[in-house]
Amino acid sequence: MVINGRDEGRVASTEAVLRSEGLDVVGVAGSMDTEPAVSLLTDRAMEAFGRIDLLVSTVGGAPHPLPFDTISEEQLLETFRLNTWPTLALIRAALTRGLGDDAGSVVAISSGSPRKTTSSMVSYASAKAALNAMTRTVAADLASRGVRVNAVSPGLVRTTATRSIWKSDAGAAAGSALPLGRLTEAEDIAAAACFLLSDDARQITGITLDVDGGNHLSSGWTPIR
Alpha-carbon distance 205 to 225, whole Å? Predict the structure, then answer.
């Protein structure tokens, strides 16, 4: 497999760990929100393995957490681009390098934000809603070529990016607020992605799979308690 990240040192160390586990791995450093990096990543995959069969796009983020009345047009469009275009560009590049020649599977990482109405997340939630729509549309377009396209929708996940939320109690409070009573781990997201990539999910395409400890069940309001 080919792995990617923006930090060259972390890519190299992860590659070394995976190689020590017996995996054939190539690491490529660079930001997938740039066209040259997309080309480099897919070209390296071809050089190392001759084809691309599976693709996971994790690029996204909320660079401008602002409400609707203060966010600028440039900031809104930047958020949309970050959460949609890199995934689309990566799929298109992979299609020219073997994806679809003998089926294939794609997984994008979305978010539960489109179901929420957090004021500062107006751009991010809208962008992820666009990614979900894009997932369904591309899945329909590629179905005849045997390529499945799905997305995983995490809620709050225990990662370095969310450390300030869970570090004081190891996530006990945040986890207790979820129906399943446990904070989602990065491994939970990875397991869902691996399932959707695998032949076990061969009849699944165009879905967005919630992996959030049941957080999506908590939306809405009721007077009944």
Answer: 37
Q: DSSP letters along 171-203, please?
A: THHHHHTSTTSSPEEHHHHHHHHHHHHSGGGTT
Task: Quote the CA–CA distance of 140 and 218 in Å, as a whole number.
Answer: 30
Structure letter (DSSP) for residue 25? -
Which of 74, 88, 80, 78 lies closest to 35, judged by CA? 88
Domains and CATH numbers, the chain: 51-218 (3.40.50.720)
Phi, psi (deg, nearest 5) at residue 130: -65, -40
Indicate the pTM of the whole model.
0.92
Task: Report pLDDT for 223.
Answer: 53
The region of weakest confidence among 16-20, 67-71, 113-117 is 113-117
Centre a 10 Å sphere on the Cβ of residue 119 and count the other Cβ atoms it contains: 12
Q: How far apart are CA 170 and CA 161, in angstroms?
A: 14
Are 72 and 80 in contact, with CB atoms under 8 Å apart?
Answer: no
- CB environment 164-186: b (16+ within 10 A), e (fewer): eebeeeebeebbeebeeebbbee
The H or E element that residue 40 is part of is helix 35-49
Closest CA to 49 of 14, 2, 15: 2
pLDDT, one tens digit per residue, over 63-103 is 999 999 999 999 999 999 999 999 999 999 999 999 989 89
Which residues does the annotation mark as catalytic?
124
Q: Which residues, in sequence order, are CB contacts of 150 under 8 Å at separation 6+? A: 105, 106, 107, 108, 135, 139, 196, 201, 204, 205, 206, 207, 208, 209
Residue 89 backbone phi and psi in degrees, to 5: -65, -40
